[in-house]
Amino acid sequence: MIMKGDRIVFSSGYGLADIQTKEKITPQTLFNTGSISKTFVSYTILSLALENKLSLDDSLTQYFSDFKNPSISNAVRIHHLLTHTSGLPDNRRSLLDSVFLLTAKDEENFGPIKQNDSLLFEPGSRYEYSNPAFNGLALIIEKVTGKKWQEVVKEKILNPAGMVNTVITDGPFPESGVSHAYLKTHQGFTEKDYGEEPTFAAAGNGGVWSSTEELAKYELAIRKGVFLNPGIINESRTVHEYANWEGNEKPFIGYSWFINKTEDSAKIIYHTGTQGGFYGDFVSIPEKGITYIMLCNVPTPQEDKRNVVLSLLKKFNWLD
In the chain, what are the domains? Predict the structure, then answer.
């Protein structure tokens, strides 16, 4: 799907949403969006911060009193989780087997993180992508609101954006109305989604199921400040720079969004998603009014395809 301004100029579906039923993919088909889900968790945290129900500078100790090493939870702040700069090691698979992880929700996935003896690096000094960070953020939403975090996301993000068909994993896999994901083997396609892929039940890092059509509504709601004011939206999509940064690369991430530039220096805001056989790409170039969204239920080279799309847009002067 490609949107220019607030008008969808190209939208199509290809292939099958379900090999067994032969249901075809359409722009309304719900896919697991993988890590694109993190942006919904991020905006919910920012919304709660705007309501003074939490501060991005709160330490994890304020929400989790059971860290094995309290110096870790004292050092890590909420904004470090949002920017993947916490330094928290992902030690889940050293403590939990794959069978357990098939049904482990956010609490169970974040539990091992609290057992770490030390950090990989000083918070804010480096980048290391972290799925458990967003399981922790989901739990913080619940602690602050007293509600399931999925309900809070629906209330603060999905409903205002008009995303009436988008759903979020809450334990059981959605039994109907969604696509299935597959891997291609020598014997044909094999299913690779809920029940075959560990961490699907851990929804804070990848539990949102949506369509290209509804994600277009999400982008419009972001740009128009429907659920957060423009200042907070701009902050979320601006590179967050830490004074103690020591990474080999320059900082490139805002509050969950990754940020790059086009050849003529227009800001590209994006997030990919990968979980099981689900692959997706969500790209916004606000200065040009361009949104590009791709959702797939087979492994797909997201960035390669994105580069082809951007090249075509440039060729036909859509990025002017």
Answer: 2-315 (3.40.710.10)
Contact assessment for residue 33 and residue 23, using Cβ atoms and an 8 Å cutoff: no
Tens digit of pLDDT for each residue in 34-90? Answer: 999 999 999 999 999 999 999 999 999 999 999 999 999 999 999 999 999 999 999
Task: Dump pLDDT digits (tens) for 109-141.
Answer: 999 999 999 999 999 999 999 999 999 999 999
CA distance 50 to 229: 9
Question: How many CA atoms lie less than 13 Å away from 283 in the CB half-sphere?
Answer: 25
CB 133 within 8 A of CB 255: no
Instruction: DSSP for 58-103, please give it.
Output: -BGGGT-S--SSHHHHHH-BHHHHHTT-S-----HHHHS-HHHHTT
Enumerate residues 6+ apart whose C-beta is below 8 A from 222.
43, 233, 284
> Can you tell me which residue has the tokens 């330094």?
87
Tokens of 139: 């739990």
Break the chain down into helix, strand, coil percent, rounded to 5: 35, 20, 45
Closest CA relative to residue 287, chosen from 262, 306, 312 = 262
DSSP per-residue letters across 120-164:
SS-TTSS----SHHHHHHHHHHHHHHSS-HHHHHIIIIIHHHT-T
**SS3 call for 270:** strand
Q: Hey, what's the torsion of the CAs at 10, 15, 17, 21, to 10 degrees?
A: 140
d(CA 156, CA 164) in angstroms, rounded, equals: 13
Q: DSSP 3-state assignment of 291?
A: strand
